[in-house]
């Protein structure tokens, strides 16, 4: 044991030097140094500190209105709200910072869970209606999954990662497998599609293949250890892992089993009648983005930094993330911070010594079924469109997002 102590002391000394001379683990101040001042104590009960808990006043991460049209709109409604990915740590998005999208600017439903029900009917032997309490009595699953809006994409106009990629979040969801409910109802063999409907003002409904329902869809009533937030579908939300956000029906009230594709309000421009296309083309990713350093952040000077970001895919777990610090000339394997989960955000990191010169950083990833994240140029070639200032990507966009770093350490959008 004693032989290991000099090694530990040497490690602490080198760590302190790396940190700019900060000592670690000192019990008393060294000679000639002043002990740190005692911070002021918080007196009394601040609003909500006991009842629900309040974050530090020094933590200021907030969501922002984002996407599609001006917010608030003519009716005073906010269209979409983006999560602050630039401030994220780990992979779970706090419920209060989770992105959300409205259904055509509809008002938020105020639903009493004691009065809410989920009806399952159509091509089943026994049409059933479940209360929220009924669902909570059934066997549950708890899974980590991302949700992402189809409008989440790189853009020349965006300044921050919140503006480019803030329409995705990842949470721990708890609920009942949809396959459990369909088996309880007696699913008929003639059922090929299911329609999920929410209870918002403008009825949101989406058509999906029955194979997806029996695979991994579930009806969620829990989010990050508590009830699903109203903005994210309280009291019930359909989770469709890997599919774009509009299929994760919020305020879920009805599921109908049918034998043919229905063109619903939500489906226009979002789903194809071909089963194979529906199963693959409309799943998200693979996708990654560097969150630090990213747009409008600043590096204080040359030296060591840990580049950090998020990667995800609707095709399964992420298997590889690579980072380039020279504008894509060379790619370096990044490390995972934790074990990547299927259809969930994973945190990656790459250790980098910046020499102080202007450069461009970016990331790309590969998922477990072999899909690789493309560059903007590759997407332009796929669509046979010129890659110029007017270039826009039809449908889903999972292209690489570059960030430029100037000599003064300022970070800007590499597409601008």
Strands, count = 22
How would you write the strand order of the largest sheet?
Answer: 5-4-13-8-9
Low-pLDDT segments, ≥5 res: 1-31
Overall outline = globular
Structural class: alpha+beta
**Mean pLDDT figure:** 85
> What proportion of the residues is helical, as a percent range?
10-25%
- Biggest sheet details: 5 strands, mixed
Calculate the terminal CA-CA distance, rounded to whole Å.
57 Å
Strand content: 25-35%
Number of helices, counting only DSSP H or I runs of 4 residues or more: 7
Rg, nearest Å = 24 Å
Instruction: Give the SSE order as H and E letters.
Output: HEEEEEHEHEHEEHEEEEHEEEEEEEHEE
Short description:
12% of the residues lie in helices and 28% in strands. It contains 7 helices and 22 strands.
Explain the overall architecture.
- The protein is an alpha+beta fold.
- It is built from 7 helices and 22 strands.
- It has helices at residues 5-18, 132-137, 161-165, 178-185, 210-215, 275-280, 376-382, and strands spanning 64-65, 80-82, 100-101, 117-122, 128-131, 141-148, 168-177, 193-198, 205-209, 218-223, 226-227, 237-239, 252-258, 287-292, 303-312, 318-324, 332-333, 335-336, 346-354, 359-367, 403-405, 411-413.
- The chain has a 5-stranded mixed beta sheet.
- A hairpin with a 5-residue loop joins strand 4 (117-122) and strand 5 (128-131).
- The longest helix has 14 residues, at 5-18.
- Residues 1-31 have low confidence and may be disordered.
């Amino acid at each position: 044991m004693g032989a290991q102590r000099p090694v530990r002391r040497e490690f602490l000394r080198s760590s302190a030097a790396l940190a700019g001379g900060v000592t670690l683990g000192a019990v008393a101040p060294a000679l000639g140094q002043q002990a740190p001042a005692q911070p002021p104590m918080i007196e009394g009960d601040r609003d909500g500190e006991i009842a629900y808990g309040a974050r530090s006043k020094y933590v200021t991460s907030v969501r922002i209105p984002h996407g599609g049209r001006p917010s608030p709109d003519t009716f005073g409604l906010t269209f979409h709200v983006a999560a602050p990915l630039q401030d994220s740590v780990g992979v779970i998005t706090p419920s209060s910072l989770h992105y959300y999208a409205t259904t055509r600017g509809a008002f938020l439903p105020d639903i009493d869970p004691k009065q809410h029900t989920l009806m399952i009917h159509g091509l089943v032997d026994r049409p059933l209606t479940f209360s929220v309490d009924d669902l909570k009595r059934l066997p549950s699953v708890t899974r980590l999954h991302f949700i992402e809006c189809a409008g989440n994409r790189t853009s020349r106009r965006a300044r921050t990662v919140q503006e480019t990629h803030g329409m995705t979040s990842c949470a721990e969801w708890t609920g009942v497998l949809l396959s459990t409910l369909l088996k309880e109802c007696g699913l008929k063999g003639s059922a090929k599609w299911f329609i999920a409907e929410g209870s918002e003002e403008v009825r949101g409904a989406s058509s999906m293949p029955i194979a997806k329902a029996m695979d991994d869809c579930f009806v969620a009533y829990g989010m990050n250890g508590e009830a699903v937030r109203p903005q994210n579908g309280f009291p019930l939300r359909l989770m469709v892992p890997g599919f774009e956000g509009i299929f994760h029906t919020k305020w879920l009230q009805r599921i109908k089993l049918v034998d043919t594709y229905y063109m619903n309000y939500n489906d226009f421009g979002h789903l194809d009648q071909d089963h194979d296309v529906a199963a693959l083309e409309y799943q998200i990713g693979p996708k990654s983005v560097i969150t630090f350093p990213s747009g409008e952040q600043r590096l204080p000077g040359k030296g060591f930094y840990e580049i950090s970001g998020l990667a995800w895919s609707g095709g399964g777990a992420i298997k590889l993330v690579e980072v380039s610090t020279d504008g894509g000339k060379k790619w370096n394997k990044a490390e995972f911070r934790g074990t990547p989960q299927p259809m969930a955000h994973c945190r990656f990191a790459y250790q980098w010594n910046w020499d102080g010169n202007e450069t461009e950083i970016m990331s790309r990833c590969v998922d477990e079924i072999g899909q690789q994240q493309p560059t903007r140029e590759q997407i332009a070639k796929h669509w046979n469109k010129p890659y110029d200032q007017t270039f826009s990507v039809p449908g889903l966009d999972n292209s690489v997002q570059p960030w430029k770093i100037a000599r003064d350490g300022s970070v800007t959008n590499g597409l601008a």
